[in-house]
Amino acid sequence: MATQLKENSQFSPEEWQARQDLAACYRIFDHLGWSESIYNHISVKVPGEKDTFLINPFGLLYDEVTASNLVKIDVEGNNVGPSQYMVNKAGFTQHAYFHKHLGERADAICHVHTTATMAVCSHKDGLMPTNFYACNFQDQIGYHDFEGVTVREEEGERLVENLGDHTILMLRNHGPVVMDKTIPGMFLKMWALQRACEIQVATLGMGNPNIVPQEVVDVHQRDLSVMQNQGGAGMFDFEAWKRRIDKIDTSWRE
After folding, report:
1. CB 128, CB 190: distance < 8 Å
2. Contact 193, 117 (CB under 8 A)
3. What is the pLDDT of residues 49-64, one digit of tens each?
4. Which residues pair with 143 in a beta bridge?
5. How far apart are CA 114 and CA 4, in angstroms?
6. CA–CA separation, 41 vs 233, rounded Å?
7. Residue 4 has pLDDT above 50, yes or no
8. How far apart are CA 163 and CA 144, in angstroms?
């Protein structure tokens, strides 16, 4: 059952729900070891509004993010909400371009620098079909060559081009961008990608990986798509992890 969340009269019910879910997502990422000091980003489109999204305040650790201190900005970088925090330009440039040009498939976006995902992004073959989770993503990932820190808007065109019609973009020598229509869907995709990369790194460390044939990958993805239709992608997972972080600290709700 979804957690009931206390409302805040400063925001619409829809925005407050999005704020609560996004703040919870930051805490879950931190709990799982996916944070990177004060850097990296998770963002979500503000429901019912055009070209506005929520993102983390620059300078705060993930375990300091709350529903009310998230920054609402438009796709031009203007702070249009009550938060007085600034936003990291690298996060705004990349996330804003995706939010602006990709529609609902990019309503929720994360970019991380976990060791395992960065290692796979830095491997010449990228993610390989060496394990159960990796097979989820074969032929469903775009790759973008490293161009340095992402602060130039003109790189956005190439990012979108290399993403194609996928929802995961592996920034080579950098880290992944994962997107979905919803925060729970994005979270589940990120969780599976992280596991895929962790297992690949461990497998390649032993040498002689067993590569899954394409015909088996095709069957795996077909059957997986049927299973994912049960209950909404990631909903059960995300609610379970919200219960976990509630046992640790409930300040994300504020």
Report:
1. no
2. yes
3. 999 999 999 999 999 9
4. 170
5. 31
6. 21
7. no
8. 8
pTM of the model: 0.93
Residue of higher predicted confidence among 179 and 79: 179
Beta-sheet strands, E only, within the chain: 41-45, 52-55, 71-74, 108-111, 142-144, 168-171, 175-180
Cβ partners under 8 Å of residue 155, min gap 6: 93, 147
**Main-chain dihedrals φ then ψ at residue 142, nearest 5 degrees:** -100, 160
Quick: pLDDT tens for 185-229. Answer: 999 999 999 999 999 999 999 999 999 999 999 999 998 887 766
Q: Residue 91: which pLDDT band, with cuts at 50, 70 and 90?
A: low
Residues 122 and 3: their CA atoms lie apart, in Å, by 39
Task: Evaluate whether 212 touches 130 at the Cβ level (below 8 Å).
Answer: yes
Length of the chain as a residue count: 254
Type of residue numbered 88: N
Asked if 57 and 83 touch (Cβ cutoff 8 Å), the reply is yes
Average pLDDT over residues 86-102: 82
Nearest to 200 by CA among 85, 88, 122, 141: 122
In the numeric block, which tokens belong to residue 30?
């931190």
Domains and CATH numbers, the chain: 13-253 (3.40.225.10)
Tokens 């970019």 locate to 111
Query: For residues 220-251, b (16+ Cβ closer than 10 Å) or e, as one string?
Result: beeeeeeeeeeeebbbebbeebbeebeeeeee
Number of helical H runs and strand E runs in the chain: 8, 7
**Residue 171: beta bridge partners?**
144, 175
